[in-house]
Structures are given as C-alpha cells and as structure tokens.
C-alpha cells in the first residue's frame, strides 16, 4: 500500500500584491503555490481562491526506510510589510490507491484537485476508468498520467502530461498496461474555473469582480470506478464474427447460383423457333420471332428489320456480333445524335402520350453500353483521388491524438472504444468490413449476370435484343464500387470522428443514392439517361455544398437562403427535364428558360387543367417537388447543424419516393414481382427498419462539446465489443446490399416480354 500526504492551507488575506507563498520540498520534487491562488479564464478574467489543498507526490517504501516514513519540508513566506494569518494542515490519505471494480467517491474543486494511484493486477492488461457525477457543472478534466513528480493537477498544466478528457456527467478512458512500463499510473481530477469548455455559458468580458473569492462555490462530487477491459480473445471472436457473418452472404449467393444453374440445365431443351434471353441468367419463351412489327404494337416501336440507330441491314450477318465491342470512332453516340432525321424522330417519339420501352431504346446497344461503363471507370478514379488524402488526414488526426493525449479531438463512444495498435476505436473500424465485403459480392453477382448475358447474345439471334429491359451493367458496377468505398471512408471517419471530417462518412452515400436513382431511371429510359460526366459533376456540386454547409451552415442565414433557392430551382429544372423526356433544352437559352417553362405549364396545366398530358409523371413530380420544397423550408427555418445528414436525408427521401412510384406503376401495368425480387424487397424493408433503430441510438454527437457528447456514451451491446453504431454499420451494409439486389432483379419478369409491350413511366 502506497501512502500519500495532503497539505491544506488557508489564508484570510485577499491582498494580491502580497500573497503567501508555500513551497513543499520532498525527496523526488518540489511543489509550490500561492494563496490567494489565481486562475485565469476567458477575456483575462481572474478567479481567486483562499483555500488550497494539494496532494504531495507519494514515495514508495524502500529497504532503507520504514513504510510510513516521509521527510517533508514546508516553507512559508510572504513579502507583505504586515503580518498575515494562515492555516496549515497536513493529513495522511487513507484511500490513495484505487482498487479494481470498487467505486470510490470524493469531492474536488479548482483549488483542491485530487489524484489517486492505480496499479495493474497481474492478470489485467487493459482497464477502463469510468467517472460519473450527478451534476454536469462545474466542468472538470480527467487525466491519466505516468508516475512523475510533481503531478500536473492544476487547470493550467493538467494538459501537459498523459491522456485527458473534459467531463460534465460522464467520462471514460481506456488504459493499457503496455503504455506504462511501471504498470501503474495516476488518475488526476481537475475542476476548471469556467464552464465554457464543457458547453456552459461563456463569461462576459465586461462583468465580473476580479477580487471575488470562489472558495466553496465550484465543488463537484465525483465517483470513479476502474474495471478490466476485454481480453485479446474477444478481439479474435469479434473479427471472426464480422467476417463469418458476411461470408454467409457469399454462401447464400453460391446456393442461389447453384439452384439457378440447375434450373438452366433443366431448361436447356428449347423448342425450335423459341427465344432464350439472359436476365437473371437465361429464361425461355415460347413466343416465336416474327420479322415484322407485331400487330397492335404502339406507334414508334422498332421494326425488327432495322437497326437501333435507324440504319437498314440487308441481313443479320452483316451486323457485328452482338457481344462485340469495338472502338471505332464511327460508333460514337454523337454520330447518331447529330443526324437531323434522328433528332426529329426523337422529338416525335418522346412527345407521345403513351411511350413504350422500344421508343427509348433505339440507340446501338454497344454504344449505350460503353456510355454506362464510363460510370464504372470514373468512380474508380474518383475513389482513388478522394480516398488517399482522406486516409492521410485521418492518420494525422490519430497521430495528434496519440502524441498530445487530447481525447477531446475525437468523438468516440468511450464506454465501448477498444484500441488496437495506434487505433483508439478499432471496433468502429472493423464494423465497416461489411460494406467492403458485400460491395465486392455485389460486383461478383453483376459480373456473373454480365457474362451470362454476353454468352446468351453470342449464341442467339440478334433479334432477341427486342425482348426485356436492355442489359447495361455499368451503373451496377459503379454502385458496387461505391458501396465498397462507403465502407473505406466510413472506417476512415471513425478513426477520429469529429465535426471537420464527417463529410468523409457521407460523400459516397450521396453517390450511392444518386446512382440508385439514375439506375432506376435508366431501366426504362436507356437512351436519355444522364451521362457519367454530368452525373459526377452534379455529385461534386452536392459535396461542395455539403462542405460549405459544414463551414457556414451553423448560424449564417444567407447560406440557407442561397441553398434553399438553389434546391428549389434545381428541383424545378430536373422536374421539367423528366416530364418532357429530355426534350426541354435548358442550356440553349438561359434567358428564355423561365418564359418557356411558363408557356409549357400554361399549355399543359391551364389549358388542359382537367388532365395533364403525362398524368403519371405529373403526379410523381408534384409529390417530389412538395417533398423537396418541404426540405428547403425546414432547412431555412430550423437550420440543422448536421448539414451533411440533412442533404443525405434529401437524397434518401427522393430515392424512396421514386422507388415506391416505380413499383406501384409496375404493378399497375400488370407486371409481376418474381420470388427473388420480392424476397429482396421484404429483406430490404426489414433490415433497414432494424438498422435505422440502431442508427438513432445516439452514442456521441460532434454537434455538442466533447464533454456533452460523452454524456451519450453507452456500453457495448454485442459480444462485449460492438456498440449500437457498430450494429448500424453491420445492418446498413446488409440493407444496402439487398437494396442493390432489388434494383438488379426487379424487372426479371420482363425478360420474355417484347419491348414494344413494356410501358415507360
């Protein structure tokens, strides 16, 4: 047992010109202070304390001295020309050494800090120091310091050594044996003279009496408990759990692929004259192929004797193989789009009241496929250039935390932050492995479909292309890369989560939501979907707005006004493009854009008030605009501090609205939902509901001060290693994976339906 001595001094003098000086000399160091003891705050405010109590650096017993012998010299001096009364009291501390799993209560104040000794038991490699208090204020600091004398236990020097946290009602610090060669450390408790660091009121620079005495007005009751942390075996179990959980998705996919292979093998006997299409794999149809447009098809359907670009073919053999992709410049999309007759054809077809898929899939499949492959290659380039600086930055953050010991930099859930190596919260990083594994699995599933589709097209007649949804996989590949990068960047954010790097966690979520909406629109509008360059440029604008919102979105009204105006105008412009199937050329004349919009609204709404020309699209766009305008008004009125999540909410609501519209219209058109997409839809809804439950279990918040954020910290709930937010990572990865599968399989029922029978909505 280590003995410690505490010195209490008190002086009735409030004369700051002639303070009483106390110097304590020990075997290992010298400790000095003055009475009145002065603390400084903001705006050079001063706080005077006439009662001071300090714990002297303890000395362990040696063979030359008895356990209770300590030689201490206390020198008292003052330069005052008059006598000053003071009181000096030296006491022996009975409970200086903290015990494992045993709570200890005590009181501290700015002029009477406390610190205690803790020694690691033989079988414990890591402990968690839990500190709680019933009162949020006064603001306090908890520090863990090595055995060095003198101990830094005052407000102005507590940050000079060791690891420290600010605290209101709760604090938790994980300490590892390897960080302290002596296998012991001091736990220091300091009360700050002001509360602004913990989120309290900021003192006025004008008011306040510098001679005011604060002896007993800022005391705080604290309770400290030191409990063993998890063992190394728990780390191994958690890693096995994380990888095996998502490897089960690979196993399930293999089972589905095997069953599908068996079903294909059973259907290989195809009657002569029938067609086999690759959708989820290969599906059969007993519908014979005719050389002319079927009877009853709508105006604008493609004649099977003509190519998708409008060029006539004398025989199928003269056309390049369906599965081949060439780099010939004559096949560029612009060669078709600039032809006047094709442009006129577009205007005629896309303004029809009832459109079918054949009307919007007229371009050469190889050219359109190349166009969508650009999404894949561009997102890889973006991911590399975005991720490398992010990784470098978060490594710098973690290094600063480790070197300075300032744990207020990062907003962890300190009650469930398990360090590994240089990482302070390895569990928050490990839980993102699901995004990477499931993103890679989705890429494999898309690759399998792509290969099956290519094989089917190489084996079958060219005219089989007139069946089902056009198979373009570029956007699916981009979605898989985006899911993997979301895991990488979320892990980077959780290396040191804070206010300035939260956009790392959300940037690719914007891209995922945007790519999903583009893919859903591309399904029945393959010829008029946005190019990769336009889409990624739009995402860049959104991310730029998110960064500006982080900087200016707190209290600047002008920013919210500008953003709300941009949001509403962008919604209107996009709605016009969607309603008129891309035939509304905003870029041709910016001056006349609004005049044309008014004229179009007049002709379609006022003159035909009873029924718009495109009723379904009008309903979707009215609801969509109401949702977006509501978001704009909400942001303008309430100005949420978490601007990145606010933008993400806009994207997600628009995606859900469009997906719901698509499924409703699909069912209205008497189309079916096959078992696999139906299962994926149900799984998506269930897993998203569970994931959102854990997402809203707030464990920290960088919108508040670090001390206030720690009030929300909670213990681990899964395997003693993962907290609620880690479970959110697991479930959200699975939910995004199922969401992608919904988009991938939603229209598998149309693989045997002619495109001139598939409606566009």
Automatic annotation (TrEMBL):
Highest taxon above the source species: Eukaryota
Single GO MF annotation: double-stranded RNA binding
GO cellular component, one term: plasma membrane
Keyword Metal-binding: no
TM stretches of this protein: 234-259, 375-395, 429-447, 475-496, 502-521, 533-552, 558-580, 618-637, 643-664, 676-696, 727-746
Keyword Glycoprotein: yes
InterPro entries: SID1_TM_fam
Main localization category: membrane
Official protein name in the record: SIDT1 protein
